[in-house]
Write a structure and sequence with these properties.
This protein is of the alpha/beta class and 145 residues long. Helix content is 41%, strand content 21%. Strands 1-4-3-2-5-6 form a 6-stranded mixed sheet, sandwiched between helices. Helix 5 links the parallel strand 3 and strand 4. The relative contact order is 0.23. About 10% of the residues have low confidence.
């Protein structure tokens, strides 16, 4: 039994629990926001941004909070190099999807200073927008308003 447990632990990385990268545009983002009753937390980020990576890591570590509140998390890269983002996505195992801005979301949401967080309601309408790397306590406070 002990050998089976060790074997399973060794095989887990082979099953690819890493995040994959998909393209996203405004229509797809709105469909995601409208597909459930709760809020959608959208984070615009970049591979080159250490604050963004830490923010995504903090969000990932609080996965139980987001699932308990029915909050969907979406991370959208604003990088120009899609391959760089794809390589990063393969190295992560976030509970939320990573997307590449295939449209003009960066411009629509004015995501020129990252990380930028946008809270969408269940209709896809903006509830709040704020720049910067927030602590989880502050983020939870903003989501509960």
């Amino acid at each position: 039994m002990k050998e089976l447990s060790i074997l399973l632990l060794l095989l887990v990385p082979c099953f690819g629990f890493s995040s994959k990268l998909e393209d996203i545009d405004e229509t797809k983002l709105l469909n995601i926001a409208r597909s459930h009753k709760g809020k959608t937390l959208v984070v615009f980020w970049g591979v080159y941004c250490p604050y963004c990576k830490q923010y995504l890591k903090n969000i990932n570590e609080s996965s139980s909070y987001f699932s308990s509140k029915d909050i969907k998390v979406v991370a959208i890269s604003v990088d120009y190099d899609r391959q760089l983002v794809k390589n990063y996505a393969l190295q992560t195992n976030y509970f939320f999807p990573l997307y590449y801005d295939a449209g003009r979301l960066k411009k629509k949401y004015n995501a020129y200073y990252i990380p930028l967080t946008v809270i969408l309601d269940s209709k896809g309408e903006i509830e709040d927008t704020f720049p910067g790397n927030k602590t989880m306590d502050k983020l939870k406070e903003l989501l509960e308003e």
